[in-house]
Amino acid sequence: MKFPTIDRVLELDVRLISHLVEESLSQEFRFVERFVQQYCSGANRFDCCELVTQGKLPNTKTSPSS
């Protein structure tokens, strides 16, 4: 049995996955767009753990419908 590999993402180029965001929105799945927004703001990244422990979490405001 082949096990999946997990690769660390150091940078997310939103342009490379914009088609996935568009497709997910066309099917009313907003979680992909929300992930991209949160990743870009720093809210959904493991490298922000130090900021969280220091009480310096980046602004993560999202619209109520998200």
Polypeptide structure, described:
The chain has three helices and no strands. The longest helix has 13 residues. The relative contact order is 0.13.
Count of individual beta strands: 0
| Structural class based on helices, strands and sheet pairing | mainly alpha
Q: What's the overall geometry?
A: globular
Q: What is the average per-residue confidence, as pLDDT, rounded to a whole number?
A: 76
- Following the backbone from N to C, one meets helices and strands in this order, namely HHH
Extract low-pLDDT stretches. Answer: 60-66
Amino- and carboxy-terminal Cα gap:
38 Å
Q: Total helix count?
A: 3
Rounded to an integer in angstroms, the radius of gyration calculated over CA atoms is 14 Å
What is the share of helical residues?
Answer: 40-55%
- Tell me the fraction of residues in β-strands, as a range: under 5%
Largest beta-sheet details: none
Lay out the secondary structure:
Layout: H1 14-26, H2 31-41, H3 49-53
Question: What's this, in brief?
Answer:
With 66 residues, the chain is an all-alpha fold. The protein contains three helices and no strands.
Task: Describe the structure using short key phrases.
disordered C terminus; 66 residues; globular; mainly alpha; 3 helices
